[in-house]
Design brief:
91 residues; two-stranded parallel sheet
């Protein structure tokens, strides 16, 4: 199917290892058609989810994380990846 519609995935409140694995599968299945991830609902986030998010940004540099919650922002900052993860992609 040649569907080029860009979509948004809403990140869950609990971004644990299980949800990280599910997000990874969603992103793989989407094959580059996800334009943004909405982080507004994130209340807790683990290292596995941060790794999936970073890998997604590396694979698809135009992918953006919109509305990052304070929990997401703080976790990214503590891990030293806030710039790589939350910056707007170059256009």
């Amino acid at each position: 199917m040649g569907n080029n519609v860009m979509s948004t995935i809403n990140l869950p409140a609990d971004c644990d290892r299980n949800n990280a694995a599910q997000l990874l599968e969603q992103l793989r299945a989407a094959n580059g058609s996800v334009a943004q991830l909405d982080g507004s609902a994130v209340a807790q986030i683990g290292q596995a989810m941060l790794q999936v998010l970073l890998a997604a940004r590396c694979d698809q540099p135009s992918l953006t994380i919109v509305n990052p919650s304070s929990a997401l922002g703080e976790a990214a900052q503590l891990a030293g990846v806030s710039h790589a993860l939350l910056q707007e992609p170059a256009r």
